[in-house]
């Protein structure tokens, strides 16, 4: 696409998603994400946040509209999904680590099997990434020997091992005990400071306020409001958002 804005990494236009049971999860959603931008997505349960995130790397099919990542239409039948997913890293609520593998082996697996990179090169990068997330001393530990926060940090290192253009985070701290949340958010803050493009579905309002370039509020499958963090949290111009924030921040 010769006329495409080179800063745009993600462009979604008129995206709708209806599940087989008739539930309308997304309704005519359009958004853009620029390179280096951190976008935080908040909203009540069932508002379509996670569904939207999963459509960005075709983990969920869409009913209408188009999503482009790096200028390639994600939901085009001809798209190479394996190649796409090397560019779009994803971290889920659950850690999904292979229990029989060490932390180091979990991080090495995809570059070895999918990218067919040399083992020595993959091992060196995996060790660097574990150090980056503060787990250099846990390289030979299995998931069962790690706390939830440590497992999630291994999952982040695993996603980074593919050298993605963008990282998607689907409520990455929601399955963690409260004392482990901070260690994961610190890793994410460091990635943001390094210029990693990130889309984060989160209930951590402090993180969104401190790290996001833009915060987006969803309700009933629609983008209701979006703004820079200061205006979003301190002077929201949407009654539904005011009510939501009042309930969340009160707790």
UniProtKB/TrEMBL annotation:
CDD domains reported for this sequence: ABC_HisP_GlnQ
Pfam (any one): ABC_tran
Designated name of the protein: Peptide ABC transporter ATP-binding protein
Bilayer-spanning residue ranges: none
Lineage: Bacteria, Pseudomonadati, Pseudomonadota, Gammaproteobacteria, Nevskiales
Protein family per UniProt: Belongs to the ABC transporter superfamily.
Keyword ATP-binding included in the entry's annotation: yes
Keyword ATP-binding: yes
UniProt entry keywords in alphabetical sequence: Amino-acid transport, ATP-binding, Nucleotide-binding, Transport
Domain ABC transporter: 10-245
Listed GO CC annotations: plasma membrane
Location(s), subcellular: Cell inner membrane
GO molecular function annotations of the record: ABC-type amino acid transporter activity; ATP binding; ATP hydrolysis activity
Recorded topology in the membrane: Peripheral membrane protein
InterPro entries: AAA+_ATPase, ABC_ATPase_HisP-typ, ABC_transporter-like_ATP-bd, ABC_transporter-like_CS, MetN_ABC_transporter-like, P-loop_NTPase
